[in-house]
Amino acid sequence: MKDFKTSLLREKFIIKPDDKKESPIIALSNRIVIHLISEDGIDDETFIIRTQNMHSCTRFAAALIKEFYERGTIANRIRPMPWENIWSDVIKGYERDWNTEIWGAVYHKGRILFKDGEYHPFLDIIEKCDVANKKEYAESIKYAEEAFSQAGKKVHIEHDSNIALVVSTNKEQAKCGIIVRSASGTTTFNYVATPNPDNPRPIQPYTTLTVAAAFLESIQLAFQVGMMNKKQDYNLIEKFSDEDRKHKRAETRLGNLDRAITNYEQSFHVTYRPQRPVVSEIVERAATHSIKILKPQIEAKLSGGELDESEWVI
Description:
The protein is α+β, with helices and mostly antiparallel strands. It has helices spanning about 55-70, 85-90, 95-100, 120-135, 140-150, 205-235, 240-265, 280-305, and strands at about 5-15, 25-35, 45-50, 105-110, 110-115, 155-170, 175-180, 185-195, 270-275. It contains eight helices and nine strands.
């Protein structure tokens, strides 16, 4: 296995037309680049993955890496890749059932190999510009502005990005750094995994990315669960409603993610710095923060006499 490195970017593009009568266009995406090289160096491919959320982007990348290491080249296969099946496995369960806005796309040399769901077409343009520019990715923004100008539409493009995940793996160890920003605060931590002396297993990049995806999803889902917990406390969730069922499914999903991470810790020697995030603490922090967000709904309940003012403090 060759050494593997990648990072996950959270991106926001604002396309501002020179014509002030036109409103700016916003395109959001998560982006990860995977450069894959076979042991013999013959197969050498780079893919770009974009999706609506961080964990699906990371999990999709893991699935493609696994395909490459187990079955070889992806872009030049005689039999096409079963993209729909792979993507379906990535988002099956909670994601497929409760995230109606989920989307994903895979690019190779600026060309779309697979896409599912609705996303802004500007993302396709920026990937073509990245390949045509053959420079730093950030420089592709200027190239895209020139492309718009040549098409008769002058625009200014603002690009805001931040790193959410950094991964580096080799045969001896896997290093991972995670930064997740949410309304209730930022969760930042690093971990290093090395083979377990008692039960040595090879460290594969796709396993490391799969676990990173579990962390990313659990942190984000914990925020949602915290808010739904508080909504339930204030009787803002109707029993047996879709939101009530989503709440229960989210709590179950959190438990499954925690078990996946625990299995990884049992298979390898994992050390955290500063420490492994405690999901229950994130849930509680989100619940506390959500009172500000839910304030209008709570006040409406109080004014309507559905809540007792002596029992609830906003």
